[in-house]
Amino acid sequence: MIKTRFTEAFGIEHPIVQGGMQWVGRAELVAAVANAGALGFITALTQPTPEDLAKEIARCRELTDKPFGVNLTILPTINPPPYDEYRQVIVESGIKIVETAGSNPAPHLPMFHEHGVKVLHKCTSVRHAVKAQELGVDGISIDGFECAGHPGEDDIPGLVLIPAAAAKITVPMIASGGFADARGLVAALALGADGINMGSRFMCTVESPIHQKVKEAIVAGSELDTELIFRPLRNTGRVASNSVSREVVEILDKGGKFEDVAHLVSGKRGAKVYETGDLEAGIWWIGTAMGLINDIPTVGELVSRMVSEAEEIINGRLAGALR
Ligand SMILES: Cc1cc2nc3c(=O)[nH]c(=O)nc-3n(C[C@H](O)[C@H](O)[C@H](O)COP(=O)(O)O)c2cc1C
Questions:
Q1: Ligand 1 site, CB within 6 A
Q2: Does some domain include residue 315?
Q3: Which residues form the domain of 52?
Q4: Under 8 Å CB-to-CB from 288, ≥6 apart: which residues?
């Protein structure tokens, strides 16, 4: 068993988290993560309406009696989803842990805290982590440049970002971005984190609700097979390298505007990749951890393997190096 401030504060067995994943963070995956003793998050905005989120939470409860959370991704969009209604559903459904990401969590904190909901805020820079801590979040998930999704604009990988954040963060903090195995877990603990968050690795498990062909592509892919889209728009996203993402990069590098790529990056097209296994149907999110993912285990196998191998590394290789 690896006990940390994070496992204690958030009431979970293992210091491993499955972060929110658009189209992927659904009940079957989140329940499998919970049943494995780790912490999974249902992705609120994957559900088209707040009522659908309530149903998804109920569906997850049928699959596990262990704690799980909900991810609320707050993105600056022209037509924002009804965040307040999603938040209301989270609270009314009795969820006690929320992962916030994408933007300042301040507007959501009072209501969550009023209802005893712990907030784990995910961010990509030390300054945003410090700010969130000052706002009163209960935990920080510090997400390095390696990650799938939005790595921010600072390009600081975990090896520097995690200890730099650990020096300033006093609430429980987990490390995110590029973690896929026991070595990463031990490294994160050594760098000052209290656990890890993984997206890409959990996406490539038996219970992950995406097409088998996408999982096989992740196993076949390497750490070189991602693209950074939206760099010129300062809204960088790390996605799989395919004809669509490469076209997006090319258009924006030539001075194109968001309108010029909107048809390529639509969420609907991305969802089609996961549904049909057509890897060129749209953009799909994956991180550089792809280079460390070589199989499609069940979530239970993955978590127990990571924990037991981490214990072996600590008790064996690392302890054995002491003279
Ligand atoms: C398919 C996919 C979709 C994601 N969607 C979201 C999202 O909607 N909200 C969010 O906060 N993070 C999202 N992420 C980021 C993950 O929660 C996590 O922070 C990230 O994957 C960590 O990096 P890793 O992939 O190297 O483990 C997504 C990641 C993936 C792989």
A1: 19-22, 24, 43, 71, 73, 101, 122, 143, 146-149, 176-179, 197-201, 203, 285-287, 289
A2: yes
A3: 11-209+294-320
A4: 146, 178, 223, 226, 238
